[in-house]
Amino acid sequence: MTISPLSRKNVQALTPYQSARRLGGKGDIWLNANEYPTSPNFDLLHRTFNRYPEPQPEAVINGYANYAGVKPENVIVTRGGDESIELIIRAFCEPDDHVLHCPPTYGMYSVSAETCGIALKTVPLTADFQLNLAEIERNLDRVKVVFVCSPNNPTGTLVNRVDLLKLLDITRNKAIVVVDEAYIEFCPQASLVNELANYPHLAIIRTLSKAFALAGLRCGFTLANAELIGILQKVIAPYPLPVPVSDIAAQALQPQGITQMQERVNDVLNNRAWLIEQLSKIPTVVQIFETEANYVLVKFQDSEKIFKTLWEQGIILRDQHKALGLQNCIRITIGTRNELEQTVKAIKLV
Ligand SMILES: *Cc1c(COP(=O)(O)O)cnc(C)c1O
What we know:
Bound molecules: pyridoxal-5'-phosphate
Number of helices: 12
Structural class: alpha/beta
CATH topology of the largest domain: Aspartate Aminotransferase, domain 2
Order of helices and strands: HHEHEHEHEHEHEEEHHHEEHEEEH
Distance between the termini: 50 Å
Number of domains: 2
Oligomer: single chain
Strand content: 15-25%
CATH class of the largest domain: Alpha Beta
Mean pLDDT: 97
Largest sheet: 7 strands, mixed
Strand order of the largest sheet: 2-8-7-6-5-3-4
């Protein structure tokens, strides 16, 4: 007797998201999950652990609204940006609707769609990692949610702003356009937040996991017009954020926390420039892709050899060899200068 056949067919068929942690590895240098390499330090200020938390903690909502330049009514806080992805699918997709994504891109859009039993349409990015708008337009039938990631994970590239606005125009009254801005702190000028007033069907995903250095907190946001936020409020869990999480998130969003985040960003950008400079001198490096985020996608002559050799030395990178169009590519998170020095040294010796 086995109960597996009792689970939903789509769950039986599901390949779970291959998160960096699930893939494992042993070592001291973790450059595979786009985390910040060191932890900020916070003390808990609230100790009412016996009480349920506020459903949408005011200090967190106001802090993020203030930081993002929107009104509190334009913000919903979730358990990481990942929960926002699933929330939007659950709120908007009927069983026979479709979700559209543009690989190579973040894997959670397809995993969340499959988990919800929603069919997925795939319109690959062009060779220079831009939207194929003509093909997207031809495939919009029954599509309720379009996911676009900018800066895109794992390529690091920005999607052209004019293309995003065209996408918003061709989907008006038809579909929600989700622009995933998980890495926007590394290129804040590229945000679409100022377009919210023009597009009721635009939803922007944000997170504290990357530039805010709080991946362990599990705290993310969706920014949208009040009507869209209200719909997500209807389907979100009653108490999504644990008391310690909102406590620390509220502190991280104070002016001092924002300043520290910006200092971190400057650090990452300096180290990224250094890494790219070093990699460009290594003969086994075929191509270094343009990046606006805290990671860089690199094409090698033989990426599997590089990946495996460094893995065995405890330098854990993110293999992209099997991602659409990314043969022989590895994604390297910008770690500390010391971690990057060791990584460069190890690559040179392969
Ligand atoms: C990291 C990431 C997220 C969100 O991560 P959370 O830790 O769940 O907030 C969302 N989208 C992309 C593209 C990411 O890389």
